[in-house]
Amino acid sequence: MSGRLLRWACTGSALTALTTLATLAPPATHAAPGPGPGPGDRPVAELLTDLQRLYRQAEESTETYNTTDEKLKARRREAADLERRLDTARASAGASRSAAGRLARQQYQNGSVAIPAYVRLLLARDPQGALDQRHVLRRASADRAATVNRLVADERRARELAERARRALAAQESLARRQKQARDSVRARLKEVEELLASLTPEQLAALGRAEDDGATRAQREFVASGALGAPGARRAPSERGARALRYAVEQIGKPYVWGAEGPSAYDCSGLTQRAWRVGGRGIPRTSQEQWARLPRVPLRELRPGDLVVYFPRATHVALYLGDGLVVHAPRPGARVKVSPVGANPVRGAVRPDPGGPVAEEWRPPRLPDGAREGTDTGWSG
Hints:
By secondary structure, the chain is an alpha+beta fold. It contains 9 helices and 5 strands, in the order αααααααααβββββ. Strands 4-3-2-1-5 form a 5-stranded antiparallel sheet. The radius of gyration is 34 Å and the shape is elongated.
């Protein structure tokens, strides 16, 4: 993200900051018509559609980046484990090789033609002693065979682990290239967002902000009126873990959205939900798509605080349900962690990280800080 967009992020939503600027700026004079229609001639609805498209593309790239990053971390752990096991196998093979070498030297030094055991028994003055010696020789022979077999097994294990380590490294390098491509794609999309916003007049920015706010308000009203949340005023207590997760999320209000961030100073949407539930005592997947795919689903009518609300057809945004039709989430670049209406974005469904967890007793919603609802409500529009 460029310096200008970061500066906007430091003071709140890019749209909110620029909308405020528009209310202070004098009316702009219209320039003479240029060779073709520029951003100043385009309808606000069209500009908002373009802005949302760019945000959607950035989010898809961010999800790819996060997914690849998780796979890369797993591959690195696997490669490190294979290296440790390979070191152990090589050390064991070396010890077996030394033992086999000693046996070879002993056999060379005692290389006279062996007298068959039954002949030694017939010539022995002490037949019982000869029988005991024969037993010892058999045991020694078995030990030699075991040493050779151990050497063969150790060498085979070392070769197999070396090949697995080579494949793991190759996969790691491939993932690193894919991660770089996803990172570059995010940066390109966000640069386009910045360039679009920078090309607009203060009047357009103000109108864009109003259109976005109006759309979020209308979406929330329609969502509640649909009865998706069940009976009006229904209140449910969270689980004990959900309560801890939600308290943590509320404590993060005001911190900036940064793509790929997992806290504690900044978050993207799924980075916030994952860390909040980790603090709550339950590990969940890293990305919103994996959270939707792998966590138990819960009907929206049964939502309780701490549940995760997932948005958009591709499950590219996620928030923690606060209760009373509100969520806590990290909306998008240029915005900060905040409280928004649950229906401000198209709801995909909800999941519950700990469906069997004990319910928190004497539950009281966490106190919201001042300004908790300021800034953009919409996340990644699709």
